[in-house]
Design goal:
Structural class: alpha/beta
Low-confidence stretches: none
Strand order of the largest sheet: 6-7-8-3-9-10
Bound molecules: adenosine-5'-diphosphate
């Protein structure tokens, strides 16, 4: 399976350009992460892949199927699991009832009770399967949402911020589940939690104001920050020159330890950080994209 976007452009009715000339290819074999600040176009791209929106121009294929073709959209939907960002559940139903209902909507050919039991097990909800969803915590509701996306073992699994609302234990379980699924299915998820990408994805695409500004491994995203991240411990009040971003500050017995983002040495006593993190790389990329936008508005 693969997702191939060529010159993909999406403009909403009021003139908002959510995606601009996006070229992106993603294939089964790993979890693909989509990272970017709010409003970058992540959900728009996922909704286009899920055939819920239509491109304004450019092409988007899932496998060989064109999202613009009515008949091919039906093929896509048959092989797709999708968790939207704002997922609504019927609170008066139990997970078993809700998932059986979704099986019917999807017209799954396999026996419903077994399939429902399988996905409940996958998200660790078997014991709570007969309780009303209205009594669930936010994390449990999110897991019901993930369970419905897994019905029918879709070959393409699209998850819009799947870890939001999950506690660290649930988040870890979900990461393990997705890592297993990615061996057989194309898993594409959006997040603004950089840690999700670090733990889970072998490929990450970064969107900024509708444009793709990075697509490679998380390791090479971290490398983007080499020469940009500095550390400084001082008990003086820090006055940062323009172009210097304060990324963190921690009090220590010797003074405040600052983590700074800057293309030049931001302070006489600042020293460069040798091993920048993925988050550093992401922040660098966003800072660069932001200054590009300011230079060419
Ligand atoms: P992200 O998921 O990265 O936060 P979105 O894809 O939700 O970004 O949004 C990208 C841009 O498109 C934003 O400016 C947003 O306000 C706009 N947008 C999203 N959905 C709609 C819509 N249905 N109608 C008009 N504008 C929209």
């Amino acid at each position: 399976m693969e997702i191939v976007a060529c010159g993909l452009h999406k403009q909403y009715a009021k003139g908002v350009v959510a995606l601009e000339s996006l070229d992106l290819t993603q294939r089964t074999g790993t979890v693909h992460g989509l990272l970017g600040p709010n409003g970058a176009g992540k959900s728009t791209f996922l909704r286009l892949c899920a055939t819920l929106e239509q491109p304004t121009s450019g092409t988007l294929h899932i496998h060989t199927w064109d999202v613009r073709s009515r008949t091919e959209r039906r093929h896509i939907r048959r092989h797709l699991g999708y968790l939207p960002q704002a997922f609504r559940l019927y609170e008066e139903l139990t997970p078993i009832e809700f998932l059986a209902y979704v099986c019917n909507l999807k017209e799954l050919a396999r026996p419903i009770p077994q399939e429902v039991a399988r996905v409940l097990e996958a998200v660790n909800l078997t014991e709570d399967a007969r309780r009303r969803i209205g009594t669930f915590s936010g994390g449990m509701k999110q897991r019901v949402g993930i369970a419905q996306a897994l019905l029918g073992e879709p070959r393409v699994l699209i998850l819009d911020e799947p870890t939001s609302g999950l506690d660290p234990h649930e988040r870890n379980q979900l990461r393990n589940l997705l890592a297993n699924l990615a061996e057989r299915s194309l898993v594409l998820l959006s997040t603004h939690i950089v840690e999700d990408i670090a733990q889970l994805c072998a490929q990450v695409a970064v969107l900024y104001q509708g444009q793709l500004c990075f697509h490679d491994t998380p390791e090479s995203l971290a490398v983007q920050a080499r020469g940009y991240i500095w550390e400084l411990v001082t008990d003086e009040t820090l006055i940062t020159p323009s172009g210097v971003e304060v990324l963190g500050s921690t009090p220590t017995p010797q003074g405040t330890r600052y983590r700074l983002g800057s293309d030049f040495r931001p302070h006489a006593e600042a020293h460069p950080v040798a091993d920048p993190t993925l988050e550093d790389g992401y922040l660098r990329l966003c800072a660069e994209a932001q200054s590009d936008v300011q230079r060419h508005p």
